[in-house]
Automatic annotation (TrEMBL):
Organism: Dinghuibacter silviterrae
Record key words, sorted: Oxidoreductase
Highest taxon, organism lineage: Bacteria
Chain ranges of the NADP-dependent oxidoreductase domain: 15-277
GO cellular component, one term: cytoplasm
Protein name: Aryl-alcohol dehydrogenase-like predicted oxidoreductase
Pfam family, one: Aldo_ket_red
Gene Ontology molecular function, alphabetical: oxidoreductase activity
Length: 283
């Protein structure tokens, strides 16, 4: 199992990254309950070798990006911070799509300022907005890249057809879709990205409501000397070499547990049992 992946041909990072959504308040809204711990999580992640942090202007909103800069700026050489634009936040747990060029311009400029960066290494469209002509959204991203504000461009929650449509305007280097050992709706997207040198970044890597899957994960965890969550993360790393993980947490201890998943060994038999969980989860 390869430990690194190269995004866009020039950003080589470790496949175990960190997702910075959970360092905000309840409902991904406002400041965290324990700001000092949130800052420690970010600092500890980098200490443990994380060189890929995923965030978005809508996390907080703005809070996650501000905390990243407070905890880590000036940034360690090689640290890649990916952020996203295209959603607005009128309140806790409420997300509205807005991929109008004028909104994305404001979002990108805000992210650059909050993160204290001149260029975003990976800027991801948080959602395609059905209310906005697709070509207008793509034209903005293309223009921002040509101006040097964005190095690489990614998409989120998209189909193969949507990726191909976007590729007529931009080079898509990453796709971030919901995906886990027991949620395989986007298996075709994973296969397409793997075959086309595009990073696949799963969010929600453990669908904890699936009792059958949890029993299997827990059983394999006991066999392998890890937790159910570590098994779910380890399976993703073994499942496809283009998968980058961004498990999120607001706790240093949970962060350290997540990072341990990279060292967890799974046998062929255990992998087959985990693969079988996806048979009924596609669709």
């Amino acid at each position: 199992m390869k430990a690194t992946y190269t995004i866009g041909g020039d950003l080589t990072i470790h496949r175990m990254g960190y997702g910075a959504m959970r360092i905000t308040g309840k409902g991904i809204w406002g400041p965290p309950r324990d700001k000092a711990e949130a800052l420690r999580v970010l600092q500890r992640a980098v200490e443990l070798g994380v060189d890929f942090i995923d965030t978005a202007d809508s996390y907080g909103p703005h809070v996650s990006e501000e905390l990243i800069a407070e905890a880590l700026h000036p940034y360690k050489k090689g640290l890649v911070i990916a952020t996203k634009g295209g959603l607005t936040r009128p309140g806790p747990d409420v997300w509205h799509q807005d991929a109008r060029p004028e909104h994305l311009k404001e979002a990108l400029q805000g992210s650059l300022k909050r993160l204290k960066l001149d260029k975003i290494d990976l800027y991801q469209l948080h959602r395609i907005d059905a209310k906005v002509p697709f070509e207008k959204t793509m034209a903005f991203l293309q223009d921002a890249q040509e101006k040097g504000l964005i190095r690489h461009i990614g998409l989120s929650e998209v189909s193969v057809e949507e990726i191909q449509k976007a590729q007529k305007y931009i080079k898509v280097v990453s796709v971030q879709n919901k995906y886990s050992v027991d949620y395989r709706r986007w298996e075709s997207v994973l296969e397409f990205t793997r075959d086309n040198d595009i990073a696949f970044i799963p969010w929600y890597p453990l669908n904890a409501g699936n009792i059958e899957a949890m029993h299997t994960l827990e059983a394999i965890g006991r066999e392998a000397g890890g937790t159910a969550h570590q098994v779910a993360l380890a399976w993703l790393l073994h499942h496809s070499p283009n998968i980058l993980l961004i498990p999120g947490t607001s706790s240093v201890s949970h962060l350290e547990e997540n990072m341990g998943a990279a060292a967890l060994k799974l046998s062929e038999t255990q992998m087959a049992r985990l693969e079988a969980l996806g048979v009924t989860s596609v669709g």
